[in-house]
Amino acid sequence: MCKKEKLPSVNEEGSPDGNSAAFVKDYNLYVRDPLHEQGGES
Q: Could you list the residue range(s) of the whole structural domain that residue 29 is in?
């Protein structure tokens, strides 16, 4: 079975150093760590 990759949000922006990504969802700002993500929103 193929592992399904999580698609980034349309409005997601990565940090310049690539250590985090931020996006807006339902008028809230979320910041996630794409390098250490384990399948949930941070």
A: 9-36
Per-residue confidence of the chain (42 residues) as pLDDT tens digits? 555 556 554 688 888 888 899 999 888 999 988 777 665 554
Closest CA to 24 of 37, 13, 16, 35: 13
Say how many residues make up the chain: 42
> How many domains does the structure of the chain reveal?
1
Whole-model pTM above 0.70?
no
Quick check: 30 and 42 in contact, CB under 8 A? yes
Q: Is residue 23 one of the residues assigned to a domain?
A: yes
